[in-house]
Fold GHKL domain-containing protein.
Amino acid sequence: MPIISDKHHNGNGLVTTKKANPSHGFGLKTVGGIVDKYNDTFDMAHTEREFSLVILMSNV
């Protein structure tokens, strides 16, 4: 199981360890921006071995 360590942080949040390619997805900053645009909830947390993301969209 991968470990979330300091190398996964850039001071502004988590960064990927994947090689650059078109299949990265939407990105957490993009998703967070959309949630913020609608004044809804985006909550991200992690431990060394777990990552959780809660998105509540009620104003869409």
